């Protein structure tokens, strides 16, 4: 489109940005005089019948997104074989520009305030069944009054179902530096993929840099690191980052999605300090659950690479004072002299459980992690016995007192 041209009833003013999917312009709605942002999708994409149908379906979904931190959707239309999205115009900068040109590393408390707005928007969208799939600083605006606006909700979701994107259009869903492991390997994704990308985003807000350097590392090298290695330590990029923010990032970006925050609401609680980030489970009144293994996201981390302990070696559940041990490893566990592999057995607190070849399950850490007040079933029974004896003693004393009064 040319500057000054009119598309439908929108007069094009200037180019706001350009990406792999198309160009975003500032335009004036000639009916109302209001400035809007209008995104033109490339003709090669808009010419595909299936993609047009997906685009129209998703546009209807996007129209239902009403949140203060999501750029408002106005309408979509087709004109001269191109597809257009009309969005709320926001005066602000994308976070990649904001960090690079204005702030560098953002102080943690300020970064948390931004993240809370971002997570609020994604929590809302996730509850509507929408996964963004391309979270990155370029898709998040910070306005002149320090509010957050999320861009491009739904476009990646529209296009992700078409395998031709990789071969014909050359468009990859997601952006390499921020992709979750399951995105990289082409596995099924859900909201926890967005959680991973949000963890990477938090890393960049606090450190001022993404965790990987695309100038010196090839796409293949970055993908291998995403699949196989924990995210680089944030202090490697910004030495003043706190240990607490590292724990939040570790949990959000765990390689195994079941060990991440289950949703944005948990992520929000963690940033507010209301979740112990050593936990990778939800605590319930009647059931406690923890994981043990070499992975940094496990509740109890085994720092021993020679013992054949798996990344997530086992789970331990506590249900109504009953301990249930489940092996999930490649090399098995030894429970009271019996070898088990991918099995679930009931155990007593303090039983001899060997992980891999030589690592004893650290019951002291289990007790601390689960905040167990008793020392297992035996101690629980002992406490009950003491209560019975004490109660009996009180009853006897009362009877003696009654007899004494009558005399």
Write the layout of secondary structure elements.
Elements: E1 6-7, E2 10-18, E3 22-29, E4 35-41, H1 43-46, H2 49-62, E5 73-79, E6 82-88, E7 92-94, H3 95-103, H4 108-127, E8 140-143, E9 148-150, H5 155-159, H6 164-169, H7 181-184, H8 191-207, H9 219-228, H10 243-252, H11 264-271, E10 287-293, E11 300-301, E12 314-319, E13 322-327, E14 333-335, E15 338-340, E16 344-347, E17 353-355, E18 359-360, H12 363-369, H13 377-406
pLDDT averaged over residues: 81
Structural class: alpha+beta
Largest sheet: number of strands, sense, barrel closure: 6 strands, antiparallel
Indicate the radius of gyration in whole angstroms.
Answer: 28 Å
CATH architecture of the largest domain: Orthogonal Bundle
What's the count of strands? 18
Overall CATH class of the largest domain: Mainly Alpha
The count of domains is 3
Strand proportion: 15-25%
Q: Which sequence of strands runs across the widest sheet?
A: 1-2-3-4-6-5
Would you give the CATH topology of the largest domain?
Transferase(Phosphotransferase), domain 1
For the record, what is the CATH homologous superfamily label of the largest domain? Transferase(Phosphotransferase) domain 1
Principal-axes geometry comes out as elongated
Low-pLDDT runs of 5+ residues are 158-172, 279-287, 374-384
Which percent range fits the helix content?
25-40%
DSSP helical segment count? 13
Distance between termini?
A: 109 Å
């Amino acid at each position: 489109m040319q500057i000054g041209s009119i598309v439908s009833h929108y007069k094009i003013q200037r180019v706001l940005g350009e990406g792999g999917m198309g160009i975003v312009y500032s335009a004036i709605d000639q009916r109302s005089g209001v400035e809007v942002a209008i995104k033109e999708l490339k003709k090669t994409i808009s010419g595909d019948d299936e993609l047009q149908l997906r685009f129209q379906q998703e546009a209807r979904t996007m129209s239902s997104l009403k949140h203060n931190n999501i750029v408002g959707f106005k309408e979509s239309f087709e004109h001269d074989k191109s597809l257009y999205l009309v969005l709320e115009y926001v005066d602000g900068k994308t976070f990649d520009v904001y960090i690079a040109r204005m702030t560098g590393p953002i102080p943690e408390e300020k970064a948390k305030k931004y993240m809370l707005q971002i997570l609020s928007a994604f929590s809302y969208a996730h509850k509507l069944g929408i996964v963004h799939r391309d979270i990155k600083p370029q898709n998040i605006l910070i306005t002149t009054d320090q509010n957050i606006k999320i861009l491009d909700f739904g476009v990646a979701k529209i296009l992700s179902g078409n395998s031709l994107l990789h071969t014909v259009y050359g468009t990859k869903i997601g952006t390499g530096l921020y992709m979750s492991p399951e995105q990289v390997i082409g596995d099924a994704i859900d909201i926890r993929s967005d959680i991973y990308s949000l963890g990477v985003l938090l890393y960049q807000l606090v450190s001022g840099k993404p965790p990987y350097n695309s100038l010196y590392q090839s796409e293949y090298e970055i993908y291998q690191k995403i699949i196989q290695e924990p995210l680089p330590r944030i202090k490697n990029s910004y030495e003043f980052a706190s240990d607490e923010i590292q724990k939040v990032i570790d949990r959000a970006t765990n390689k195994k999605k079941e060990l991440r925050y289950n949703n944005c609401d948990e992520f929000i609680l963690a940033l507010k300090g209301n979740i112990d980030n050593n936990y990778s489970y939800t605590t319930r009144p009647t059931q406690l659950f923890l994981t043990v293994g070499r992975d940094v996201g496990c509740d109890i981390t085994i720092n021993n690479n020679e013992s054949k302990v798996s990344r997530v070696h086992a789970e331990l559940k506590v249900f109504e004072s009953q301990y249930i041990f489940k092996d999930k490893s490649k090399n098995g566990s030894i429970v009271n002299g019996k070898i088990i592999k991918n099995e679930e057995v009931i155990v007593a607190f303090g039983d001899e459980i060997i992980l891999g070849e030589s690592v004893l399950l650290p019951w002291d850490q289990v007790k601390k992690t689960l905040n167990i007040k008793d020392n297992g079933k035996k101690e629980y029974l002992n406490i009950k016995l003491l209560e019975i004896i004490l109660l009996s003693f009180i009853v006897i004393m009362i009877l003696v007192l009654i007899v004494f009064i009558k005399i």
